[in-house]
Amino acid sequence: MSHSGLKDRFGRTVNYVRLSVTDRCDFRCVYCMAEEMTFLPRDDIMSLEEIAQVARNFVSLGTRKIRLTGGEPLVRRGILDLVREIGSYGLCDFAMTTNGSHLPALADELRKGGLHRLNISLDSLNAEKFHAITRTGTLSQVLDGIDAAREAGFEKIKLNTVVMKGRNDEEIPDLIAFARTRNLDITFIEEMPLGKISEHDRGLALCTSDEVRSIIGQHHELKLTGDDTGGPARYYRMPDSSIRVGFISPHSHNFCSACNRVRMTVEGRLLLCLGNEHSVDLLQILREHPGDDELLREAMIAAMDLKPERHHFSSKGDVEILRFMNMTGG
Ligand code: SAM
Ligand code: SF4
C-alpha cells in the first residue's frame, strides 16, 4: 500500500522514523545515563514483532528512512532478525546509531541483513578518557568495531562526538585527523539537557558548535555545504578531504521548521519532538488490538496533529525533559 505521506499541522512531511529498540546499554556515558540505572521490565518493552509491525505500517504511510537506536541497539537479543526484516522493506535509507562495541562481531551480518548506514559514537581517542566518559567502555573494542564496519563494506560511516569542555574538547583536532585518514564523516554534538546527571554541570561543559568550528578552523578551512537532512545538523567540507564535518546544535531552533522526523521509544511511545513530551501510546493500541494495522495507522496519522512547532531547550543546562537519552532514542 502506498501513501502520500504523513503531514503535520505545520505542513511538514514526516518520512523519517527513529526507533529505539532497547533502553539498555553496555556503556554508561556520563551525558546519557546515571551510573546506576533502572531499566524497564521486559513486559513493558515492545517485542521485535511489535517493533516490526510499527515499522511496516510507517513504511506504508510513506516513511522513507528508518534509524534504529537505543540505548545500544546491538545489545538487544534478536537485533539481526529485526534488521533483516526491516531491511526487506525497500527503504531509501536504513541506518543505525551504535556505540560500536559489538561491531567486531556483528558488522558483517548487519551489512548482509540490509542495513545501509552506521553512525558510531566516539568521544575520545584516549583510552583513559574514553573510559572516564563511557564509564564502562573500552576504546580498542570500538576502534576494532569501526574497522569491522569499514571492512564489511559500510559506506558513509559517520562518527558522532558529544563535545564537553574539560573532558574532550582538546581532542577535536585529533578526532578530525582520525576521521580524515579513515575517510569517515564526523559530527560534533552539543550536549542536550535530557535527564538529570551529577557528573558535570551541563551549562559549564557546553561546548557550542561555534566554538568547535573555530577550533577546527585553526587547522582547516571549513566551507558550509548546502546539504540538508531536515535535521539539526549543518554540514561543512574541507578543501583537501572528501569527508563531511557536521555540527548538531539542538539549542538553536533553525531546523524545527524543516523537521521531518518522529521517534518511538522502546515502550511504544511515539514522540513527536525530541524536546517536548507530546506522545501517543502505540503499544497500548498494538496490545489491545493485536494485528489491527488499520487502527495503528489511524493512530499514527492522528498523532501528527500533536507534533509541536518547535522544541525548547535551555542552554544553561537546566533539565527540562526528564527522560534520559537512552529512553528517547538518540
Ligand atoms: N548507544 C548508541 C550510541 O551511543 O551511539 C545509540 C544511542 S545514543 C542515545 C545516540 C546518540 O546520542 C549518541 O551519539 C550519543 O552520544 C548521543 N547522546 C546521548 N545523550 C546525549 C545528550 N544528553 N546530549 C547530546 N547527545 C547525547
Ligand atoms: Fe549507551 Fe549510547 Fe547512551 Fe552511551 S550514549 S550510554 S553508548 S546509549
Main features:
TIM Barrel, two-stranded antiparallel sheet, binds iron/sulfur cluster, 11 helices, binds S-adenosylmethionine
Q: Overall pLDDT, averaged?
A: 91
Give a quick account of the main beta sheet: strands, pairing sense, barrel closure. 12 strands, mixed
- CATH class category: Alpha Beta
> CATH superfamily assignment?
Aldolase class I
Q: What small ligands are held by the chains?
A: S-adenosylmethionine, iron/sulfur cluster
Low-confidence spans: pLDDT under 50, at least 5 residues? none
Count of spatially separate domains: 1
The termini sit apart by: 29 Å
Count of DSSP E strands? 14
How many helices? Answer: 11
Helix content: 25-40%
- SSE order in H/E notation? EEEHEHEHEHHEHEHHEEEEEEHHH
Strand content: 15-25%
Rounded to an integer in angstroms, the radius of gyration calculated over CA atoms is 19 Å
Shape: globular
CATH topology: TIM Barrel
Structural class: alpha/beta
Describe this structure in words.
By secondary structure, this protein is an alpha/beta fold. It has a single domain, classed as Alpha-Beta Barrel (TIM Barrel). Helix content is 30%, strand content 18%. The chain has eleven helices and 14 strands. Helix 1 links the parallel strand 3 (16-20) and strand 4. Helix 1 runs parallel beside helix 2 (79-87) and helix 3 (103-112) packs parallel to helix 5. The model has no long low-confidence stretch (mean pLDDT 91). The structure holds S-adenosylmethionine and iron/sulfur cluster. Residues 25, 27-29, 32-33, 70-72, 99, 121, 325-326 line the site of iron/sulfur cluster.
